[in-house]
Design brief:
Blueprint lengths: L4 E5 L2 E10 L5 H12 L15 E6 L9 E8 L11 E5 L2 E9 L4 H12 L8 E8 L2 E8 L1
Length: about 150
């Protein structure tokens, strides 16, 4: 894995379905993705940015990557976006990120990229991280850092 690029991003807004991920139950992640694929409210979200690229947001960390956190799967949206009932909105403050590109067969490439992050010496802040799904084999991880 190559050294990540560091960037500063302004505040962001995400809308989608959420679940709480406990360290001993990672199966809720695939269940959330399945819910998003079959849900009728998520496609009704308006004001999507980045050509409607799907995102996975990780926030409300209990501690660090070994603790529980909230996961949202949906879209980045504008402030004017219309969000149907049952869809949660998460606001993320301006933040510095390490950006890691996970290319290849999914979800394996994303899993391997996150394993690299967990083993790395990145100075993470555990505010909100997100993955941006740019194509069948291209995912950009944004890991919040100091």
């Amino acid at each position: 894995m190559q050294q990540p690029e560091e960037i500063e991003l302004p505040a962001r807004r995400f809308a989608g379905l959420t679940t709480r991920v406990e360290p001993n139950n990672p199966y809720v992640i695939s269940a959330l993705w399945d819910r998003v694929r079959t849900d009728t409210t998520v496609p009704r979200i308006t004001g999507c940015v980045n050509n409607g690229a799907m995102v996975a947001v990780y926030t409300e960390y209990e501690s660090d990557y070994t603790g529980a956190y909230t996961m949202l799967v949906g879209y980045e949206v504008t402030a004017e976006a219309e969000v149907p009932a049952g869809v949660r909105v998460i606001e993320v403050p301006p933040q510095k990120y390490a950006v890691i590109l996970a290319q290849g067969k999914q979800p394996q490439a994303v899993i391997e990229a996150w394993q690299w992050v967990w083993a790395s010496s990145l100075d993470r802040v555990y505010t909100a991280d997100f993955d941006e799904y740019l194509g069948q084999e291209d995912v950009r991880l944004h890991v919040a850092i100091r």
